[in-house]
Amino acid sequence: MRKQRKTLLCILSLCICLFAGMWGSFDVQAEEYEGRPITGMDEEGNIYEIEPEVGLVEEEITTFANSSEKIVNFNTKGNAVTEYTEVGTGDAGYTNGASGADAAYLGESGGKVKFMLSGVIGEVNKSEVQVLNKSSAKSLSYYTVSGGWLVHRITTNLNSSNYAGSIRCGRAPSFLAEGSTYYSYDGHYFYASDKFAVMLNDYKNNSRSSSINPGSPYYNYFQYLPMRSPSSYSSASMDSLIASETRTESKMRGIGSSLVSHQNTYGVNGLLTAGIAANESAWGNSNLALTKNNIFGINAVDSNPDDAFSYASIDVCIKAFSETYMSKGYLNPKDWRYFGGFLGNKASGINVKYASDPYWGEKAAAAVWFLDEAGGNQDQNVYTIAIKDTMANSHQNVQVRAESNAGSTVLYSTGTQSNTSLLILDNTSQNGFYKVISDGVLNSSRTGLDASSGKFDFSSMYGYVAADSIVIVNKGTNLAGVDRFMDVDGSAWFYEYVKFVYDRGIMTGMDMFRFGPGEDLSRAQFATILYRMAGSPSVSYSNVFPDVQDGYFFTSPVLWAYGNQVITGYENGTFGPGDLITREQMAVLMYRYAKYCGLDTKDSADLNSFPDAGKVSGFSQEAMRWAVAAGLIQGDQGTLNPQGNASRAHCATIITRFMQKYGL
Fold first, then answer.
1. How many angstroms separate the CA atoms of 635 and 611, rounded?
2. Domain 223-374 in this protein, CATH class
């Protein structure tokens, strides 16, 4: 094990209650309860409980003189929630001063103090906070660069010079220097240590012109990566990297298959889920995790009414989190807790309603950075991320449409929260629109949201947003070759065959996430594969088949295959592009293609060694004997299974064997 996480001195049970009203108003706090422990995270990712203290600064040192450097102290009540209203939207928010004490002071009006904290510009009752000179505080939260990492040092008590946390926020951008101190209350724009007053002035004027990076805001990749982004790690790899970061008794050990399975079913990134679990359960060692199989602290009333926080297994807990809390809840644009489908902060994302800790999103993302580092940085910067409203005072409500035009159906709207991230599926815009993954589950006709289901299909649940409403902040590297596909594991029997045909452009994926190895192959798809093998020759359109019109992806391939007698139509005059092909039909088509290429097809095998040889149709006898003799077909669990549908994985296998035999 690469590192041993420190054991907590206190029991850490981050219970989350499904029912609001236990502490504060329903529309402010979603997953919060009175007495929830305050936790910190150090630069090595260790999570520990912090003894909360009331951090009021003595009154005699709060006189302002005429200082231009003022801060807002939120730790005036110890471990307690403070509610506020966001400026510009009127949205209700909440924070806990014992998790992050200081905020930037932006002014006062009508008994309200205006501030910026964790990206949000808000107004809070003056009686709830304390306004101080910056010089009165013994510590202020700041950012620094340590060993190439951007680290956020957080104070929870302005009377103390000690820091309660040092959170890794990703690889430091090039414009920040190793060891230097920077101030920022949004985590995107940074100011040198001697520019605190300048920063406040920028904030008050809704500007970042005096920051170090006015034209290139920084976004912590995993903090802003949408949850609707499948991780590239297999279940075995996930187990390995989690094991490298946890103690042997951790309840997070061995959860790789659950993370990947529920990711693929409910569309919730398995690695991000693991990061949230690590933050919520102290890497699987909290009391709830160890005694009740609860690694998220979520309420389990439906599964066990006698014990509101107990789950029958860790898998059941992960399913509840992925399906009910995330897919149907925080990632559903119709849900009151939706402020964007990513970890985020207090301006946007899951952090807005999930936790009073203003740096909950940073902490969960930090855990993901540690996990991904253990896995060789396989997921880092893979996806292209765009941001709606890079300034905290900007609040567009961008429409996500079904197609790439302004007249198409509106699937949902993003909401008015600033700094909202979207996952870009195509790096080039179409008609002034970018294709993005949907946050919400879409109905089967892609005309709107389906709130009844948590099941998510990465291939069909997408939309389009106007290119001029977003800014791309991370250009994804995307995994190379077949490793981009979440359904093609390196240990799968078909991996090398799929890799062979994909690397040569003969077969492509169903979409950017999925190859579809188990999906049946259609006549149109197989015609396209043979057409690519032939070099994609030029074809002039003619209306040969009524069901093959001009402009389809398979039009030229079908006309080429028909013109060269590789594939024929049906007796009724149609082609049937969507009809599935069987294994014996594939053998026939490969046989015809071999003849088209002028290859030797004289090899012939006796099929009687297979128990189902008698099921081979008369029209395919010659082709099947050739395919077996040439080694293209080697049996399906000892049988020919001639009438069985041909899957994409089997197609990749036969094409690979064909090309290798004939040296193509």
1. 10
2. mainly alpha
Task: Assess whether pLDDT exceeds 80 at residue 608.
Answer: yes
**583-596 helix and 523-533 helix, angle to the nearest 10 degrees:** 30
| CB neighbourhood size of 183 (10 A) | 22
Regarding beta strands 70-73 and 181-183, do their DSSP bridges make them parallel or antiparallel, or are they unpaired?
Answer: unpaired
For tokens 């899957």, name the residue: 647
Burial level of 6, CB count in 10 A (0-12/13-18/19+)? middle
How many CB atoms neighbour CB 565 within 10 A? 10
Cβ–Cβ under 8 Å, residues 88 and 121: yes
Determine the residue type at 340.
G
Per-residue pLDDT band for 479 (boundaries 50, 70, 90) equals low
> In angstroms, what CA-CA distances link 524 with 153, 223, 315, 463?
58, 42, 40, 26
pLDDT of residue 304: 53
What's the number of CA atoms in the CB half-sphere (13 Å) around residue 352?
29
Sign for the pseudo-dihedral over CA of 560, 563, 566, 567: positive
* Tokens read off for 210: 């005096």
Residue 562, amino acid: Y
Mean per-residue pLDDT over the chain, rounded: 90
CB contact set of 75 (below 8 Å; sequence gap of 6+): 53, 54, 55, 56, 97, 98, 101, 156, 157, 158
What's the CATH class of domain 384-474? mainly beta
- Which tokens go with 612? 């189902």
Dump the DSSP string for 420-477.
EEEEES-SS-BTTEEEEE-SSPBPTTSSSB-TT-----TTT-EEEEEGGG-EEEE---
- Beta-carbon contacts of 289 under 8 Å, excluding residues fewer than 6 positions away, are 250, 251, 252, 281, 282, 295
Give the whole-angstrom CA distance, residue 406 versus residue 409.
Answer: 8
Torsion, CA 253, CA 256, CA 258, CA 264, rounded to 10 = 160
Structure confidence at residue 33 as a pLDDT band (50, 70, 90): very low
Measured CA to CA, the distance from residue 593 to residue 554 in angstroms comes to: 17
Give the span between the Cα atoms of 4 and 245, in whole angstroms: 7
Q: What is the percent of the chain where pLDDT is above 70? A: 91
Domain map (residue ranges) of the chain: 38-215, 223-374, 384-474, 482-661
What pLDDT, on a 0 to 100 scale, did the predictor assign at position 459? 84
Exposure string (b/e) for 581-608, b if CB count within 10 Å is 16 or more?
bbbbbbbbbbbbbbeeeeeebeeebebe
